[in-house]
Design a protein that fits this description.
It holds the Pfam family HDOD. Helix content is 52%, strand content 7%. It is built from 28 helices and eight strands. It is elongated and about 85 Å long. It starts with 9 loop residues before the first helix and ends with a helix.
Amino acid sequence: MTEQQIPQNAEQWYHFLSEKQPPVRLSIIKRLQKKLADPNCSVNHLSKLIKSDPLLCFHVALAAGRLHDEKQSEITSIDHAIGSLGMHKLEQLINSLPTLRLNPASTAQKMYFRAVANSHHAATQVHQWLKQCRGGMFAEESYLAALFYNIGHWLLWYFAPQHMVKIQIMIREKDVGPELAETRVLGCTIDGISKRLLSLWPVSSLARVTLENSTPLNRQMILQLHQRALSDPRLDGDQLRQLNHLTQQKFFPVKLGNLLALTANYGWGKEATLHLIDIINDYLRGELNRTFAFLHRNCVMASRNYHVAGTLAPAAEMLMLESDLSPTYRLTATDRKLFQLPHDKSISESAKTHATTTVNRPTPPQRVAAEAATDQPDAGRISRDEVASKGHQQNPAQEAATLEIPAKAQNPAEDEPVGGPETQPAIRTAERDSVPDADFLDKNLYRQYLQRFNELGDYYSQGAQVLNDLLKALIAGLGMQRAALIILPPKSNSLKVVKATGFADDHPLPHSTHILGPKSLFSRLNEKPGCLLINQTNREQVRTMLPATFSRHVSQEDYLLMSLIASNRSVVIIYADRDNTADGVQTFHHKKFKDLCNSAGRCLDHVYKLRAGAKK
């Protein structure tokens, strides 16, 4: 991705992808254009070619869906969509589509077509199930829904391949569950992105309904469906009635087909795949051996009906013997040229010494500052309630809001947002910053920590580790002289400094407690995200809003205060100064301080989501 702003949730990915058009193979467009050049060509002549390519089906369904949307009606099959457009509109559409000639050295392009083939396999399975057990009722509509259910996978592999590679590495090399891996990298599941896109694109109302009803078919429900398939006596009457109702829903086979296609992608012999086959066998009311054979025949059909030269369809792979081989999913040098991607930058060995190890027990956000404090030998234990901070309704990506302090106290620099708007969070890399090296104490170290926070990868498993590295980056990288972590426990008027670095051993501020007044600046920082540069212009105004015991011990020169937001709440307030330096805190330091703290806040938010997911 070449955009300077990286999406962080389903809504932001929707805004990024909603105007994109997935390209179609150039070869099939040329075949269609050759047919169109024939004066005897009709819609029926084009229909077979269009239905042979899921990408063409998408563009045709989208164009027809928009026509039907104006009349408040819906398309129910590919044939319906083709007939709705007619010859003239089909010709216009075919000549306007973006095309792609497959580069065999491009992993991203091959995985793009693989994702399309995976959806085609799911749609083929669903179509055949309904023909066998429902007499073909809703078969065409369900085929359409199953085909577009995973539209997010298609677009992400072509327009955000770096993110998809990270997801594949987590799943295939680190045994992270697909949904958890997607959430860690994208900030949401791909199902969530697909659901949002299908709310805009009227290609299949059933696909949209299926995604909206994905929650009932969660891991627990899959387990219960498997128990039902095995006639497990532990299921009570209410559970059986709920499961029977679920299996009769129109969206059920669509969801089940896509679950099978995605899960079997990692092996037919996997336990999760075998459980799904038991559920499918129960849905088809068949015998297990015959169901296995039926599913494999559908694999053959799917791989034969849709094939891209130079790639191997997932359905074809599923017919092969079990092996440790997996498809190539890492980007090549060709990919970086084709998609204009930057080369990966490795972190130096000195920075890697801070890499974290996996832990078994989740760490709630409210305990993070207390855990950070335990690194100090003389730090006392802080209870969960003391560290818990006040929640608010602001999204972490909306850190831009400035504090509503009097005009005299407000610094002009604070009118600039700390982060971008919610749809475009500003995650800017150090490479874009053209500033003199002398302004940093250690520019490379600052960049290393900023990159670690922005990558949202595997460096951190606890929030305290993020905060510890933030302090190191502020002191050793940016060149701040002193920094401190401050918390304001809920339902308390006592401010606690839980960790500090750079202060003299006998300094009274580290691990001190301060009583807040009725109009405390800290209370506002705890409620709203913001970053303040306290200088000679606003010092006296701000002093009236701080506890006297705190203000008398902070720098008499310029200093910075910023609330760190994660999991929709203030975790800590960061204090930093450049006491006893020649130049003090400059606008440069103010800006880099905000960038670093924003990135650390996003990283914290990601750690909490990851641990919450692991807890589930």
